[in-house]
Amino acid sequence: MQFELITTDDGSHTLYVSELNEVYHSKFGAVNESKHVFIMAGLMPVCKEKKSISILEIGFGTALNALLTFFETPARIMEIDYHTIEPNPLNSEILKQLNYPEFVKMKGATQIFNVLHESKWGTPVRIDDRFTLTKHKIKLEDARLSQGFYDLVYFDAFGPEVQPELWTVPVFEKIHSALKDKGILVTYSAKGSVRRNLEASGFSVMRIPGPAGKREMIRAIKHETEKI
Q1: Does residue 139 have a pLDDT over 80?
Q2: Model pTM greater than 0.90?
Q3: Right CATH for 29-222 from 3.40.50.150, 3.20.20.80, 3.40.120.10, 3.10.450.70
């Protein structure tokens, strides 16, 4: 695939794939979108009552979500077990051009960003004393997920129009089984078909305010017993 580096409205980069007519992040702000959808709507609610968390990301892509998770997870969380599924990793030449570490504004951000991408695939890699990364180079449809393992899922695949095979009831049922009770799935999409497929898979689904440029997004909970 051919990639075009573009600057989004918050100054952070994203990649445009011409043959898919799709971008990796919102043109209204790549970093702002990731923080709103995955960090504030997903990570922070999950961290409220836990000392360790397990996360599954669908679509490693540019590693923006992983980078923000590394630095944004509250210090009281002692262990972060981060798994990600990505069948088509980006090449190093593209990754070197991305400016995400500039937006983290934390010491060592560039080093961590590079380590996230350079870590071996298919094996757990200790990034620091509390963050372990396991990258799986496989299609989601072919992945075997442990039941009841994850606290949180970042569903960050290309949109339903581009990858319709990933937004189906069978896929969401697989993820539902892989989540712990009260586990959360968050995604930028708020399409009616996505909501219906999540509900058909056993999730309790909420449409909540979306990031800049989107009125709504989805947060889905397994066996929800109370509002969060």
Answers
A1: yes
A2: yes
A3: 3.40.50.150
